[in-house]
Amino acid sequence: MAEIQVVAFMVGNEEFCLDISKVREIKEMMPITRVPNSPDFVEGVINLRGQITTVVNLKKLLGYYDMDEDLSTKKIIIAEVKDEVIGIIVDSVSDVITLTDDQIDQPPKTLTSRVDIRYIKGIAKINDGERLLIMVDLDKLMGEEF
Asked: Cα–Cα 20 to 30 A to 110, which of 19, 24, 54, 104?
């Protein structure tokens, strides 16, 4: 039985996860330089050890708009997407979880979520289904936007 490790995080009231192989590190919020005329979900760029890195707000990308949001308490997941390093702003990061194949289901066709079903790899069931995580396909999600 194959295993996968994921990083669990919150965006709005929903819990998501990413394959840990895509994640380079998790950072506290840091100064972000705005980029004029960039899409609304792009917060700007950061200097990550000398590398200029685009930072996107996953909450905005997924349609959770809160214009008065205080970003100072957020986390930045530094991830690799299509051979590019990007920063992804999330509300909080909870833990790293090891999942087995039988804990991951395909999303139901009738799934109602703010997230387009095309961007969901699956639904992870933890603690006998008491906790559900939406598995985000970052390559597809970011591929549509970049």
From this structure: 19
